[in-house]
């Protein structure tokens, strides 16, 4: 059975819902955020070994946050801001036997930075047959590479050499490559809004350095 392909329109819709908290216009809704990452997980999976270093981490982090959303105190994890305030006020951020939602989501947040930069540069390639390995490597080096040990960085860089050209890559991973190219700029605008709002929250609560 062929693997289900990546739907960029669905990612756009999910990120759009992330920003629609009726209580606080500066907050981010966690459920919609996780739905977007479930779709992005398909993208990483369809890329094969190239994004193996991201794929397993995304799956694990999404599952952890979904468990928080299924607990009796699930409302504490309904938005990113409420989650941060709850874990801070309950002194859970440094608790050894507790898996912090704020720390877990920080890893996804860093991954979003990478995928945003990569897809943006992918959309800016002038020709359909332009190679994607250079833009992928540059995007990785500017984002996720800062948080990975040397061995992972080396493996990721080697795997990126096998990336095809722009149209071949989109045909491989997307439900509809032509639609993906058309919709990509709109999706990137919303994804950036989600990233920036989340970044501001991590800055406000001084949580960028969570171990």
UniProtKB/TrEMBL annotation:
<dbReference type="GO" id="GO:1902387">
    <property type="term" value="F:ceramide 1-phosphate binding"/>
</dbReference>
<dbReference type="Pfam" id="PF08718">
    <property type="entry name" value="GLTP"/>
</dbReference>
<dbReference type="GO" id="GO:0016020">
    <property type="term" value="C:membrane"/>
</dbReference>
<comment type="similarity">
    <text>Belongs to the GLTP family.</text>
</comment>
<dbReference type="GO" id="GO:0005829">
    <property type="term" value="C:cytosol"/>
</dbReference>
<dbReference type="InterPro" id="IPR014830">
    <property type="entry name" value="Glycolipid_transfer_prot_dom"/>
</dbReference>
<dbReference type="InterPro" id="IPR036497">
    <property type="entry name" value="GLTP_sf"/>
</dbReference>
<protein>
    <recommendedName>
        <fullName>Glycolipid transfer protein domain-containing protein</fullName>
    </recommendedName>
</protein>
<feature type="domain" description="Glycolipid transfer protein">
    <location>
        <begin position="29"/>
        <end position="174"/>
    </location>
</feature>
<dbReference type="GO" id="GO:0032691">
    <property type="term" value="P:negative regulation of interleukin-1 beta production"/>
</dbReference>
<dbReference type="GO" id="GO:1902388">
    <property type="term" value="F:ceramide 1-phosphate transfer activity"/>
</dbReference>
